[in-house]
Amino acid sequence: MNSGVIDIGYLQLLLAGLLILITIGISIKMKLGQSKNLIIGAIRTFVQLLALGFILNYVFALQSWWIVLLVVLFMIVAATQIAVKRVDRKIPNLWPSIFISLFFSSVIVALLVVEGVIQAEPWYSARHMIPISSMIIGNAMTAVALAINRLFDDLEKRKDELDALVALGASPFEAALPSI
After folding, report:
1. pLDDT at site 1
2. CA 121 – CA 128 distance, rounded (Å)
3. I need a labelling partner for 172 at 20 to 30 A (CA). Which of 24, 69, 88, 122 fits?
4. What is the 3-class SS of the chain, one letter each residue?
5. Average pLDDT, the chain
């Protein structure tokens, strides 16, 4: 049976590195001033992927439900932090709201996919749960940050209308409902 591992050889790594070098060359040629950032980003990506590979190798070998759930929880905490940083405005108590939103939506969808669609055995299979959860969490993180930014942009555009509605007796929630 196929273990699902894709062996990436030196040629594939060389080709990936060549793409990075082409990007750096374009940046230098066009005088974009991004060469240093691209080099640092490439090195950082390499180190992070290498570290992640070692960690995931350990997690896959252990195949323990609580370690898999701990990794998923860590990904949700990291995604929450990133989503909060992507919101343009400083909003008090935003972190818990985003965390709860990401946690429940991501865990429910991941369990439905892993258990209902893929039917992985066991349900906490690290080879299935972690990659699928990371894709779902990443998409949810982007969606949450965009939705919050769009909501507050719309509320800002409707400021005069909101003030008028509240002055006429509407609650702040009722006035904001079309934007919500």
Report:
1. 44
2. 9
3. 88
4. CCCCCCCCCHHHHHHHHHHHHHHHHHHHHCCCCCHHHHHHHHHHHHHHHHHHHHHHHHHHHHCCHHHHHHHHHHHHHHHHHHHHHHCCCCCCCHHHHHHHHHHHHHHHHHHHHHHHHHCCCCCCCHHHHHHHHHHHHHHHHHHHHHHHHHHHHHHHHCHHHHHHHHHCCCCHHHHHCCCC
5. 91
Locate 80 and state its tokens.
């929450």
Distance CA 80, CA 91 (A): 14
| Spatial contact of 48 and 106, defined as CB atoms under 8 Å apart | no
pTM of structure = 0.75
Residue type at position 122: P
